[in-house]
Amino acid sequence: xxxxxxxxxxxxxxxxxxxxxxxxxxxxxxxxxxxxxxxxxxxxxxxxxxxxxxxxxxxxxxxxxxxxxxxxxxxxxxxxxxxxxxxxxxxxxxxxxxxxxxxxxxxxxxxxxxxxxxxxxxxxxxxxxxxxxxxxxxxxxxxxxxxxxxxxxxxxxxxxxxxxxxxxxxxxxxxxxxxxxxxxxxxxxxxxxxxxxxxxxxxxxxxxxxxxxxxxxxxxxxxxxxxxxxxxxxxxxxxxxxxxxxxxxxxxxxxxxxxxxxxxxxxxxxxxxxxxxxxxxxxxxxxxxxxxxxxxxxxxxxxxxxxxxxxxxxxxxxxxxxxxxxxxxxxxxxxxxxxxxxxxxxxxxxxxxx
Length: 354
Fold this sequence. Notes:
The chain is mainly alpha-helical and 354 residues long. Helices cover 62% and strands 5% of the residues. The protein has 16 helices and five strands. α4 packs antiparallel against α16 and α5 runs antiparallel to α10. It is globular.
């Protein structure tokens, strides 16, 4: 049974304090706007079997499940065609094993939805959508390795290194990363070269020492140590949220979005990126390994800082609710019918069960 709750503000988050001007200026970012953010209150309902079931913010009518299934099938088909079996066969088998193992395809869907939001076509965004899933899969393969996160299962299957060995797993991840950038550069059609370059630059920024690598490094260095909420936010913004942000921003750039549109979806993406990790932390301590498709409780066992550990479960749920409300607020700039997929993807991220 769902119960109503009023969510307190977490306005001390650096994510909320610096919505735009903390990022480097570029031709497609709008430095002239500072949106009104928190403190404010959002009404939310938490269900017993859900991290965050729904908000009182009305969502447009939209066949989201049908949309998600259809788009995921198209992404899976494109991924299957992008990585074919060829010599050396073992490395390509390892690439396909992890890339085609299932998954929610959240990043490709965000990329496509953002592209279509600003008037672009799915076909323009598909190469970038596939590239983002390749990059994400690379990060999972490497993260599971014994000398990093040391996980034996991923997506309800043995991890890549358990099947192919550590050396092949490392090389499969490397191959997916390089193929991702090549795939965008070679296969995008109907998009101006400057926008293709901007999209690739966005991806690269999300991967390297301004993104995933920085978050992973600080995460490893922080194991067993006392970590503040500010430090935890840094880890998760870089390790998880940056790639989700790149997915949304790349879609808008490729779709022809103007500076204000790109900045609006960027702010939306920052919120859902951190939301994704907050929910992940909650699920890690509330779900079983069978439900998650990976080892449950690993963060707690390895001494890693998590939002439930630092804030408590209920405060972490409240923070998730606030992030969701802020993400939805950013979409109010757009026509509701066009933004519907992004509304529902944010809600999906908040209420997912694995």
